[in-house]
Amino acid sequence: LDVFDERMNEYSGVIYSKRTAFVKDLLPLAAEHYASLSGGRESVSIDYKSDLSKGSLVDLLKASREKDRMLKYTTSGIQRDDFQFEMDGFPIRRCGSQGQQKSFLVSLKFAQYELMKRRYGFPPMLLLDDVFDKLDMDRISNLLGMVAGSDFGQIFITDSNKVRMSGIVDGITSDRAYFEASGGEFKEI
């Protein structure tokens, strides 16, 4: 097992540093977008939890080897890493409303969009699927204001409520088209 542990240690260090750098780049963008969506009512953070912050993978695996053999699975290592999403210092999964959780997901999507745009030099297509569900009108208005106020390129927004969708989008831009999906076919309306 020591040979495997040494080999995995090389790759786990690379994965750990890439994930750490990704969170460092993603967090300020996600926090900024969340503040725009929520009107600055709450603050959010992302905490990357990794066993590798405690030491090398080789040391972690050696320390847990007996326990792992008894349990018949590996209890430490890069595969156990997790991201904790927080709002005002508390896990958003437990303390955030459905609207706050949805707002956080949208802010992550926008942050990811920005990182991709920077990396590749052009705006990727943005898909916001059923994004208005669980959001109050203030957050919906803030979201569409963000989209209309920036160069997002091509955006696809899906919603099951035609009246809500057209009422909101028509108030922001005339550069849009509506399509209805029915029976596997799309028709412009």
How would you explain this protein's 3D organization?
By secondary structure, the protein is of the alpha+beta class. The protein folds into 2 domains: 1-100, Glutathione S-transferase Yfyf (Class Pi), Chain A, domain 2, CATH 1.20.1050; 125-189, no CATH class. 53% of the residues lie in helices and 16% in strands. It is built from 6 helices and 7 strands, in the order αβαββααβαβαββ. The protein has helices at 2-38, 57-71, 92-95, 98-120, 137-148, 162-170, and strands at residues 44-49, 82-87, 90-91, 126-129, 155-158, 179-182, 185-188. Strands 1-2-3 form a 3-stranded antiparallel sheet. A two-stranded parallel ribbon has the order 4-5. Strands 6-7 form a two-stranded antiparallel ribbon. A hairpin with a 2-residue loop joins β6 (179-182) and β7. The protein is elongated, with a radius of gyration of 21 Å. The N and C termini lie far apart (63 Å). The mean pLDDT is 90.
Instruction: Give the class from helix and strand content and strand pairing.
Output: alpha+beta
CATH topology of the largest domain: Glutathione S-transferase Yfyf (Class Pi), Chain A, domain 2
Number of domains: 2
Strand order of the largest sheet: 1-2-3
Give the overall silhouette: elongated
Beta-strand content: 15-25%
Identify low-pLDDT runs.
none
What's the Cα radius of gyration? Answer: 21 Å
